[in-house]
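Co-fold these.
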Amino acid sequence: MDAHVERKTFLSVRGLKTHFHTRHGVAKSVDGVDFHISKGERLGLIGESGSGKSVTALSIMRLVREPPGKIQGEIEFEGQDLVKLDQTGMRHIRGGRISMVFQDPLNHLDPVMKVGDWIAEALLLHRDLDRKEALTEAARMMKALKIASPEDVMRAYPFQLSGGMCQRVLIATAIVTEPALIICDEATSALDVTVQASILRSLTELTSLYGTALLLTTHNMLVVRQACTRVMVMYAGRMVESCDTDALFRQPMHPYTVGLLNSVPSLERVGQPLVPMPGEPPLPTEEIRGCAFYARCPIRRAACQERRPPLAEVAPGHWSACLFSEEARSKDTF
Amino acid sequence: MSLKKEFPARSRNPFVRSDRTVKAVDGVSFTVKPGEVVAVVGESGCGKSTLGRLVIRLLEPSSGAVRVDEEDVTHVSGGELAALRSKAQIVFQDPFGSLNPRMTVGDAIAYPMKVNGVFKRNEGKALQARVIELLEKVGLNAAHARRLPHELSGGQRQRVGIARAIALAPRLVVLDEPVAALDLSAQARVLNLFKDLQRELGMAYLFITHDLSVAEYMADRIVVMYAGKIMEIGDRASVFGSPRHPYTEALFSAAVLVTAGDREATVLDGDPPSTITPPSGCRFNTRCPHAGAPCFVEEPGFVKLGAKHEAACHLLTGKLNRRTEAERTEAAAIVAS
Amino acid sequence: MAAITEAERATRRLPHMSGAVARAWRIVGHHKSIVIGLGIVLFVFFIAVCAPLLAPYSPIKGQPLDRLKDIGAAGHILGADQQGRDVLSRLMYGARSSLVIAVVPLTIAGCVGLLLGSFAAYAGGVADTLIMRSMDVVFGLPPILLAIAVSATLGPGLLNLVISMTIVLLPPMTRVTHQVVAQLKEAAFVEAAKVAGASSQQIVFGQILPNSLAPVLAYGTSLAGAMVVFGAGISFIGLGIQPPEADWGRMINDGREVLDLHPHVSTLPGLAIFVLASGFNFIGDGLRDLLDPRMRI
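Predicted complex below.
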């Protein structure tokens, strides 16, 4: 990383490991992950279920229950190490400097609170405003999210609103305190595709406006393509590829990414057969020697099992954890 | 081979709550030919799941007709309904909920055959053999027959649901969002399985999905639904090559990763309308970027756009003109203030 | 979503231990509460059944010379009451009526409630409303008053107590069944059975009832403990078992007048009630897990 990037980086994750001690062994949900987020950047974290993307997001927010979880490594944010910060310190950060939007909006809204009050509460907790000012701010944020008649919506209870509207409320809650980073954990997975498009567009517009950075975890390629400037691909708790969004779709350089892109139907690849990847991802409790993707990789060889392949820069700004990334690239069908 | 047509024409399905009815499906007509794959695409609340159930008579239409093989099955019951079951089946969306947690995989697959008396009491071995045959057709094996649903993965459970659906060798299988609840890896495998089975057994599919790219991968014809009505219908090449209805365009914008040169991105704000009190005129008028005067008064009729392509929109009748990007932004601003 | 997939895959890959013994051992390990509960209940049951063989004295005939002997006295390990009757023997015979009150009304109400509730839920409409609203009416009656009313009409005694308890238990059992069946009715696998061509009868008996038994059974067992206590209470106020028959609740009442000097007369039967009720509660606690097909590893 050159100095120029260093200056703009405000969240640095180094060697993050989140392990859970369970009856069946130690589940290494996140097993050594490094990345950084720069100001105003929109970073996507793609992975299937079990890849560790959600746990990564939760680890940054220290929303993982410890025990049975245990977070190791370093998460440097605005001069503090979030891994070592105590709960009081984290409380200031959550909602104030880093906000989070979850997947199922109804479960994350207080059912007996009017939605407007809920958004205002975020402000009352983290800013020095009185109730009236907070409600005005909330209304302003709803307008910015393209909600017609925000006053009516603010007076409503969550059960009276649609899923898409509830999610917009949650986003408003997340943005209204003008945090440095918003983490969206599969935030649009439960929504219709047109609602998703609308929300993603609002998210990108608003975060550009306020200079807020975004971390989006998802299993949906579309989300990443529509909303993210940079992408990281996770597999079995490890980072396997990291690059610009365009580069990922045009020139993936890891066999897993290639396999993933070939197994998802897309309107850009009309007429091409879907090629599913054989096998299943390893369980987090499994001991893995060498590369985690070995068992399913079409270009595997003995060297891949010797040691865990490091994330290396295989092209400018493009990182891949495959020892033979050049070969992986030549197999793509994009 | 006899032509198979189904006309769930003008079916309405009211669930009466006090004195209001939910018009889940409000006037839908189309046909499915033998061996054809028709995809019904739409978002939540558009009525596609209800449509699927109407087609196989899990629900009874409030009006209109469903015809299978020239026979009107709209209001049949008893023996005739049972006969329909062996012609039309369904695969559900939820791989776990659609299997009885206390029934083994083998029993679940054998169930439709037992219930319909396909094998006699003493033909137990033949029944078992058929179950194993079905298991293998869907990519599982005989060992799975003794397992319980919770011991299988999502993809495997869905395969059991598929084996069960084809057990009676139906002519039509309704697939209700069959891969929506599956992992990405399992999705691809199950979709390919559908294709293989169709090639091998020649059944028609009514593929219900919210995912346009899945529809493109699987279908011969596409039906786009919104708020209980069909917006656009046509063969795959026409609908995907030149979508003409603004809602279809919006679905594309949301699903296509890069917008092609001449196709403007259409991003819809707001939510689908209520099906209890639908808007007067075109159902799409609350979110349509081109909505104009006629859209609030009169429901558009279908306009033929090609031999196998039609859409219901006033833009196509000349009563209305498309708005430019600037005009749309202006209109949106007026609504928002 | 991730958590579910993890658990699924974990289950798939657990080693299948061979032998029913190994499986039983594992179940025991996971369900200590059922084992303890069953142990207690079966122990009491055994004593109740074998009372004529085990009891040192007759529960009815008292020996005036042994009046109010304390615990540990010669010939009376647990002492004697005011009439010289041996407490231990009375406890043994008293177990019978407690067990009957715990089990019989629940079983009858459970069976009838199961049928009524599932019929009402599946049929819906007018039948549903009629049945469930009638249950609501009965539910509104305070159990004690109902017991008193029945005793006043039919006379006191164990049989009439069983009758009134059955009536009291009918609404909750019907309601629980109704709720479970109403939920199951909407389940996707029930729809799947319909599509397969099954008749309503086949669906109710083949799909719905087997899946409703577990929660209903678990709920019922949790009521058994309460029944033990309640039955004892009714006998305490004199409406249940009549003297000179032995009954734990009755015994508590008998010992009231000598509570200060000879507490064992009331306390021991009280302890017995506590132990038996706890036994049933332990069973109820663990029963649903045991019946869950997912635990059949």
